[in-house]
Amino acid sequence: MPTRKRNYRKEYDTYHGTEKQKNNRVKRNAARRSMVRNGKVTKGDGKEVDHKIPLDRGGGNGKSNLRVSSSKANKNWRKSKSGYNA
Question: How many domains does the chain fold into?
Answer without folding.
Answer: 1
